[in-house]
From TrEMBL:
This is SPFH domain/Band 7 family protein. It comes from Actinoplanes lutulentus. Gene3D superfamilies: Band 7 domain (3.30.479.30). The lineage of its organism: Bacteria, Bacillati, Actinomycetota, Actinomycetes, Micromonosporales. Residues 32-203 form the Band domain. It comes from the Bacteria.
Amino acid sequence: MADVTRRFHLRHLRSAPTSWVSHTVRGAAKHEGTGLSFWYRPLTAALSEVPVDDRELPLLFHARTEDFADVTVQATVTYRVSDPAAAAGRLDFSIDPYRGTWRGQPLDQVAGLLAELAQQPALDLLARLPLAEALTTGVARIRQSVADALAADPRLTETGVSVVSARVVAIRPEPDLERALQTPTREQVQQDADRATYARRAHAVQQEQAIAENELQSKIELARREQELVEQHGANTRREAELDAETQLVAARAEADREEVASTASAERLRRLAASEAEAAWVRDEARAAGARAVGLAEAEAEAARLAAYRDLPPAVLQALALKELAAHVPAIGELTVTPDLLSKLVGRLG
C-alpha cells in the first residue's frame, strides 16, 4: 500500500514500484504512473492505487465426473493487472487520502471473477470424463482448458487483467474412493513385494545352504588334516621310540664291551696282582726265615760263646753271676740274709 505522511494541512504520498497510482483533482489527472511520490491536498484529491505485480490465486473446488464420482480440483492461477487505468475504471481501487488504505476489496473481486471463469471449463471437462481417465489424463487437459478459457474471456480484457499461467496441482477423489482405486495398485505392489521377499528368502536359503556346505567341507577337510596330523604324530613318536631303542641298544653294547674289556683287564690285573703279592709274600717269608735263621745262629753262637766263657770260670764266680742274674729277675728285696747253707743249696741247684 501507499505510504502517506502528514505535513500541516498537506499530505505526501509515496507509492511502491509495483503499484500504479492515479491522482485526480476535480476530474483532471494530476499524477498517474508507477512508483510516484507527490504532495496533495486530501480535501480535493481523488486517489487510486492498482498493484501491477504478478499475483497467485489458489483455487480449490469440487466437480463430478461422467460416472458420478466426486473429485476435488486443486489449481493455481497467476495473473496481473496489465491495464491499471482500465482496472481502476471498472473496479474500486480508490484509497483513503488520509490513511492511504483501500476503501473496498478490489482484489477479492478480481479473485472471485478469476475463480468463476476458471472453474467453469474445468467442471464442463470433468463432466465428460470418467473417473479413471480424469485421474490419469485430466490434469493436463483441465490446465489447457482453463488457460484457454481465461485468455479468451472478454471480461478480463475489459477489466485490464491478464492471466500469466494456469496450473492444476491435483485431482483427487473422495478418501474412500481413492483407497478403493488404490487397492489394485496396492495389491500389485504387495504381490511384487511378496515375490521379492520370497526371492530374497530363497536366495538367502541358497546362500545358507552354500555356507553350510562350505562349513561341512571345511570340517571334513579339518578332520582329515587332524587325522593326518595324528598319524604323522604317531609315526614320529614310533620313529623316535625306534631311534631311542637303537641308541640305547648301541649304548648297552658299548657299555657291555667296555665292561667286558674292563672285566678282562681287571682279571688280568688281579691275576698279576695276586702273582705279585704271592711272590712278595714268598720273598718276605724267605727274608723272614733267613733273618730268623741268622738270628738263631747268632743267638746260638752267642750262647755257645757265653757258655764257653762260663766253663772256665771258678765256682765262686759262677755263683756270683748267678746271683746277679737272679737279682735282675726277682722283685725288689729290702733285706736278704744269705747263710752259707742257703748259698750252697742254691749253687747246688744252679750247678
